[in-house]
Write a structure and sequence with these properties.
By secondary structure, the protein is mostly helical. It is built from 15 helices and no strands.
Length: 354
């Protein structure tokens, strides 16, 4: 199996943080902390390092053996429980991501196209990523993710003339509000728990993906700051997708007044790639739980099941946004308990220690 580079690992970590986490969390975060909501991403990004650090500690017990192999071959019963938990959590995640993406396209771009057609296109693309393998998918991340990130870093320059900095005052008015905003952001950042088990033959090291996490915190913070200084706390909470409304305000000249289409075109492949990576992981989990199942051949059935559940679990686009408030209880609890469970129970055999 070809080696996954550190750059590719960082791009995938960055993708998990920015593709969907920039969309729905800003609304409940601003409702909770108002002008201080931007601090929530920084606090959540720092806090998510704790469960990842615990997973790093568990990995170090097995030296050159990947955490996936340690779970599957050395502690089969524990491995099956943990992988089943991972499968349930990230199946809900992929269903949410599919429903959100097709809702966004249906509302802003293709209002006359049936949702099933949009969802089928997204799942078909994700299946192609799975059949290409993790190496090709990681290489795609190196191409697609930086394009979107670079555009985001240019936003402050383009929006400086329209910014109203008084919207950020007073600073730290409600520390409890910042804590609540961090709670909502953590519900999305907790998806980084995919990283320790995503590469089945590669050992996990937190230090290797730290640059990607730092850039992810910067990107999400820049976007929510842009929403605050442009619209203010009150107006920002009225939008279904605040980042899209933000980029619609970009206007360089009379002839370059639709930069939102260019940025949306850079974001959508990133979101599709995230769905593809999640589907690839679910196929690996299915293969580990039932070895007779071929991971690549399982992509289409699992993808179609995720499509059906995306339309079943979420009746409307409004309900997709409302999951941001309950998401931290579900995914956040998982992200904290699983590392502690592995830290307590997953240990090498005595012969391996000696």
């Amino acid at each position: 199996m070809a080696q996954i580079s550190k750059l590719q690992s960082n791009m995938i970590a960055l993708m998990l943080m920015v593709s969907i986490a920039i969309k729905h969390p800003p609304v409940p975060m601003i409702l909770a902390a108002r002008q201080d909501a931007w601090m929530g991403y920084i606090v959540a990004g720092t806090f998510v390092l704790l469960p990842l650090w615990i997973m790093d500690l568990v990995q170090r017990r097995f030296r050159d053996v990947s955490l996936w192999d340690a779970l599957v071959t050395r502690r089969p019963w524990l491995g099956r429980v943990v992988l089943l938990l991972y499968g349930v959590v990230f199946f809900f995640t992929i269903a949410h991501d599919i429903r959100f993406m097709i809702s966004l396209i249906n509302i802003y771009l293709l209002p006359m196209t049936p949702l099933v057609v949009l969802a089928g296109s997204a799942v078909f693309t994700a299946v192609l990523f799975v059949k290409s393998g993790i190496v090709a998918t990681a290489r795609a991340a190196v191409v697609l993710v930086p394009t979107f990130v670079v555009m985001v870093f240019f936003l402050p320059v383009l929006l400086t003339g329209q910014a109203r900095w008084e919207f950020l005052s007073p600073v730290l008015e409600s520390p409890l509000g910042v804590a609540e905003a961090s709670f909502y952001a953590f519900g999305h950042f907790a998806e980084l728990m995919l990283m320790p088990l995503l590469f089945a033959r590669r050992t996990f090291r937190l230090a290797e993906i730290f640059p990607g996490i730092a850039v992810g915190i910067a990107v999400t913070t820049i976007l929510i700051l842009g929403e605050l200084v442009l619209f203010g706390p009150e107006l920002s909470t009225m939008f279904w997708d605040p980042p899209y409304e933000l980029i619609r305000q970009l206007r360089m000249t009379d002839f370059l007044d639709r930069l939102d289409m260019a940025i949306a075109a850079a974001w959508m492949p990133t979101a599709l790639l995230k769905i593809g990576v999640t589907l690839l992981f679910l196929c690996q989990v299915a293969n580990a739980l039932m070895p007779d199942i071929d991971a690549k051949l399982a992509a289409a059935p699992i993808g179609l099941l995720a499509l059906a559940c995306a339309l079943w679990f979420f009746d409307s686009s409004v309900q997709v946004g409302e999951t941001t408030e309950s998401r931290p209880f579900f995914i956040g609890t998982f992200a904290l308990l699983v590392p502690l469970l592995l830290l307590a129970l997953l240990r090498p055999r005595r012969a391996e220690n000696t």
